[in-house]
Amino acid sequence: MAQVIAISAGLLLCAALYTDLLFRKIPNFLTISFVCVGFLLNMTIFGMLQGGIIAFKGFATGLCIFMVPYILGYTGGGDVKLFGAIGAILGAYAILWIFLYSAIFGGIISLLRILQIKKISLVPVAMRSLMFLPANGKQVSIPSSNTIAYTCPIVFGYMTYCVLGGCV
Questions:
Q1: What pTM was computed for the model?
Q2: Could you tell me the residue ranges of all domains in the chain?
Q3: Alpha-carbon span 84 to 161, nearest angstrom
Q4: At what angle do helices 2-23 and 77-90 cross, to 10 degrees?
Q5: Phi/psi class of residue 137: alpha, beta or left (left: φ > 0; alpha: ψ in -120 to 50)?
């Protein structure tokens, strides 16, 4: 059953990454749907009460820890809701580790973005392609605010969490 939970979180992140890179927005229907999936999965696996508590703690933890970067203007509201949805699926413990790994990858990608903006040639072509994947054969427009799609670091954080044994 752990695989079902890991796959559900992976599906959410794939869909969120796609919409965030393409439209720079994570739709509410996506995050709300996966919050419901998180509650249903946890209640099915762990029982109504315990599963509901696990999902609620993860949801609340995800919202709370990502609310600080949102208030400071570093992330958008879709990222906050995405983190809440991941928390509802995986639980509070997992979301804390994913937040840590996401912050590390977010810092690395932001540093590379700064180097790219300053036209310092240390940023490899592969990294530029990763940050702004082509959509329908065209390059995704780089926003004038020089922001990154924070779903990328979240996906890397989730993958790191899984590789280090958290999704087993």
A1: 0.82
A2: 2-163
A3: 17
A4: 170
A5: left
Contact 152, 130 (CB under 8 A): yes
Question: What is the C-alpha separation between 49 and 143, in angstroms, rounded?
Answer: 44
Helices marked H in 24-165: 28-46, 48-71, 77-90, 92-117, 125-131, 151-163
Instruction: Decide if 85 contacts 34 (C-beta within 8 A).
Output: yes
Nearest to 87 by CA among 152, 5, 147: 5
For the segment 60-115, what is each residue's pLDDT rounded down to a tens digit? 999 999 898 899 988 889 999 999 999 999 999 999 999 999 999 999 988 888 88
The residue assigned the tokens 């427009």 is 141
